[in-house]
Amino acid sequence: MYEQDAGRVVNMRVVRVTRFGGPEVLVPGEAPDPVAGPGQVVVDVSVAGVTFVETQIRRGVDRWHDKPALPYVPGGTVAGRVSSVGEGVDPSWSGRSVIADLGMTGGFAERAVAVVENLIPVPEGLGLSEASALRTDGSTAFGLVEGAGILPGEWVLVEAAAGGVGTLLVQLARAAGARVVGAARGARKLDLVRDLGADAVVDYSTPDWTKRVREVTDGVGPSLVFDGVGGEIGQAAFEVTADGGRFSIHGASSGEVTAIDPTQARQRGIRVIGVEQLFGFGPKMRDWAQQAMSAAVAGQIRPVIGQTFPLERAADAHATIESRGALGKTLLLI
């Protein structure tokens, strides 16, 4: 960490996006130390979360968020210790371990400014890395489960089951008494999903993967699908969904959200929970994150942290996510 040297302020380390493009546009640099304003705190960042959506914003192709003004420091969620508080902030926040929501920018840095209302205390018994892994993915997974409902004994298909959200959906479905088919790409990911308790795993890079899903589910198909991939895989998953089931969409790692024919869904009695459900998650995300962290402390779920990188290798972290080689959550350790 940089300190004052003979009256000269040495800047903190940051990583900036200098232009929209590939991972190489993430460039290490320096910036002045931030100062907490009224209602704000400064967090000494230990962990910064990395998400797939952030890679798409960096490329300039994300359709759900406004483009940040260039250059910008990416990173929307960090974990660390509150080092200073601004005017009007309870001094008891100072020194506490917290998760801080920053919006969409500011996290790839040694220190970050956060509004005090956007802090979540990290509970005893949970590390900062685990808390960071659960903040976004955990709250999303809990929200998806609440929206779709999981019934004991039913078959649930989880796409991208080795990802940050997917690994938690597998565990939550199993905890609810469901039987789980975990779909992922490659033996390494399938091994992880199996270790998390999935009753069956399928590789959706193979052409007959939906046939395998039907076999596992006694020819009926899963009654609930969590679709985080979209595109052709999402469409194939919808086709194999049991009549009268639920099809919950939360992602499009393929680049396209699954487009469901409303007439076909109605004829088959399938309730489609569209990707727009995510737009209503905001007010509940804090509560869901706290539920996820409490569940982890109790040993009911565990976040999978598949890979970590130092701050200066943020480009490698983004490249790993985009290559679909990541397991679970990807974090920067600062």
Structural features, described:
This protein is an alpha/beta fold and 334 residues long. It is 29% helix and 25% strand. It has nine helices and 17 strands. The chain has helices spanning 52-59, 128-148, 164-175, 187-195, 209-216, 231-240, 262-268, 285-297, 314-322, and strands at 4-5, 8-9, 12-17, 26-31, 40-50, 77-85, 97-101, 111-115, 119-121, 155-158, 179-184, 200-203, 224-227, 246-249, 271-273, 305-310, 329-333. Strands 5, 6, 7, 8, 9, 16 and 17 form a seven-stranded mixed sheet that branches. A six-stranded parallel sheet has the order 12-11-10-13-14-15, with helices on both faces. Helix 3 links the parallel strand 10 and strand 11. Helix 2 (128-148) crosses helix 3 and helix 2 packs across helix 8 (285-297). The longest helix is centred in the middle third of the chain and has 21 residues, at 128-148. The protein starts with a strand and ends with a strand.
Key structural traits:
334 residues; alpha/beta; seven-stranded mixed sheet; six-stranded parallel sheet; 9 helices; 17 strands; globular; disordered N terminus
